[in-house]
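Chapter summary example.
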Amino acid sequence: MSDIHLVQSAIKTTVEWINTKSCRSLPFDDKHLLLLPGPAPNDRDYFRRLAILAADRANKEGYSSLLAGAGNETDETGDVGFYLGEGEYDKPEKVLEILGLQGKIHMCKNLSVLKDEYSFRVEGEDSKQLFFVVGKTEEGGWGGLVGAGVWT
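The structure predicted for these 152 residues follows.
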């Protein structure tokens, strides 16, 4: 299992990157490793488990972010959970809108961990990219993981 302090540090770096790019300040639940642009879910521990599982799998593969993958040129970022709540979040543009983000969207291969799942990445400045996996959670609202990486 990954060192929880290293996981938390990598996740905080990802949250900082997201908040730097967002046109709004996104609340972060440090205890549950969860970005909350929408209402809080009933089961916040679900997202903590999801983030830790992603960190464990990435660590076994030898990189910091499962979503950014092996091509990621930084070891300082990780994957953080986010919860959007109920709504029409079946398209990347809707997810970026609630997160206050924008950029060129590229669809990616799914991880198959959530219902009605889809994955995409968003190109940013300075070779920084955000990687998303989005789907319906066990309690019904939309959420997922977002990771950050550097690709040149």
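To summarize the output: The first helix runs from residue 4 to 21.
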